[in-house]
Amino acid sequence: MSFDAVQTPQERALGHVAGLSSGPPLDPMLRVSLNFHPDRLTRGKPILDSLAECGAYVSQFVTGTSNGGLTAYPGGDRWRWESRIFNGAYDNAAAGERPVYGALNCGRNPVGAAPRFGSSHFRLTARTLERTTFCYPDSCLEPSDFGTAERMGLVELALADHRDALDDCIEAQVHGPVRLDRDVEALVLDLCYRGTAIEDAAGRLPCPVEWHPGFRLTVGELRRHPAYRGQEFIELGARIAVGGVLTPRLVGDAARTGRYDPQAVKKVWHYLARFGAPWPVIDEAEHRERGDEAAPDGVR
Question: Which InterPro entries match (predicted)?
Fold first, then answer.
C-alpha cells in the first residue's frame, strides 16, 4: 500500500502546497480571519443560529451559501480551483471534508483581513495556522504563489502589490474542521449590532465575543465615488441609508427583504466596506503611495 493511500485529503492538500511554497516562517502572532455577514440567512435560518447548532464553521460546499461566487459544486469554478491548487486531493472528498476560506490578517486590521466578505469575523487560534495553506492573489485568479506557516513568502509579495483595498489580501484555506469552541479566539462584531438580536445570538456561541469600531458611511461620502462600482449602486445605497448614513445592519436589513437584487446589495456593501471602514483599514499615506482615490472624509 502506498503512503498516499493512507493519507487524508487534508494531508495530501497540505503536503502538495508545502512543496509549492517558499520563504521564511510565518509570524506566529498573525491570525487568520473568516469574514462574514452575521445577519444573513443560510437555508432560511439566521446564520448565527445555524452556527450555534452545528458548532462549526463550514464551507459553501456544505451550506450552499457564500458572500462571493456560488460555484461550489462538482465541475463549478470553486471545485475546479480547489482541484488545481490541491492537486486533486479533494476531488472525491465529501463536502464536509473540504477547507474553509478566510484571509491572513497580516495588517492586524480590527475588521478582519477580508471585509469584502463581511462586516464581522471569526479570529482563529494560532494552532490552526499549522493546517492552513495560503495563496496570493485570490484562488479565483489562478495564483502561482503559495505559502504555509513554515514557508511564507506571500506577505512581502502582497505588500509590494498595488490592488484595491478590498482585494489586497492573502487568501487562507483552513484544512480540517473549524470548531467554534476550540479553533476560534473570538467572534468580532461590528458595533452596529450592540443591543440587537445579533448580539443575543452571538452570546449563544461557544466562543468569546469582541467588538470592532464599526463601518459607517454617509451618503455624501458615498456619492463621491461613482466610478468605484457604479451610479446605480450609489442610488440604491442612498435609498437603504437611514438619516443619511449606511451601516452593515441597514445593508443586512435590505438584503433580507428580498426586494433588491442580491448582487446589487453586495455592491452597496462594497462601497460601505471600502469607504466607510473604521480608520485605518488603509492609512492616508498608503492611499497616496498606492495612487488610490483620496482617503474618505469622516472615517478617520
Answer: DUF3626
